[in-house]
Amino acid sequence: MKLLGPQTVVSRRFDSDAEEWLYYLRETRDDWPEGMLRLAKMTSNRRRNSLRRNASRTFKQAQAEILDVLQGKGWRLSLRSLKIPHATSPDGWLRLWFKPQAIYYTAGSHNFGDARSLHEDDIRTQAPQAVAERSIALATKWGDRSNR
Length: 148
Known about the structure:
46% of the residues lie in helices and 14% in strands. The chain is built from 5 helices and 5 strands.
C-alpha cells in the first residue's frame, strides 16, 4: 500500500484546516500512520460537532416540515400522532414512513415490515423541500413498478 506524503495530503485540502494539518504532519513525521489516524479523528470530530451546531431543529420538527411539503405536493398523510407517521403518494403506489431519525419507503405494499430505508443525511440540517424531493426521487427509482 502506497502512503501519501504530507505535501500531497495538504495540497488536496483547500479549507482553513490545511495549516493545522501541515503542523500535525510535521509533528508526527516519524510515526506517519499514527499521525494520519489522529488527523482523521480530529476531522471527524469537527464534522460531528458542526452538524450538531447546525441542527437547530429537532427530528420531530424536521419531519413535520417535510410532511407539510409532501402534503402540498398532493400526498395523503397519516395522523401525525402515530408512532411512525407516513405519507402515501397521490397514485397510492409509494409510501414514505418517518421513524425518529430515518425515512423508509414501501412500493406497492403498505406494510412497514416491507419497508426499505432511504439513505439521508441528518434531516435537521437540510431544507425540507430538498429532503422531500430527494426522498420522492429515490423511492420512485427504487420502487419502480417494472422491477417487481
